[in-house]
Amino acid sequence: MRLILRIAGTWLIGLALVLLVIDGTKSLGANELMFTSLFELWTQIHPPSLAGMEGFLESRFFADLLRIGFAALLTYPAFAVFGVPGVILALLGRTPRRLRYLRQDQI
Q1: For the chain, what are the domain ranges?
Q2: Vertex 41, ends 37 and 47: CA angle to 5°?
Q3: Which residues contact 82 (CB under 8 A, 6 or more apart)?
Q4: Confidence band (pLDDT; 50, 70, 90) for 95?
């Protein structure tokens, strides 16, 4: 299970780094800080799936709360949306502290 968490975390961190490099390149070209929001990224990649996701959330029990949370998530920078869960998954998949260090009598 830890292996799956580490792999998923590594992939998400890698994607976040790629998105951060893209944002950094855009920022250098524009001479100001520019971040690509998750909404912009999603509409560039596959707009019909964004509409499908909004329709899916509308059919849920807490539709108003989900719509507000989803709208807030879409405004965040894309690298942060993928990077934060990646770091959390990577930390959850690490080896427990007691197994990382050996005492001298265990060598």
Answers
A1: 1-31+78-95, 37-76
A2: 125
A3: 12, 13, 15, 16, 19
A4: confident
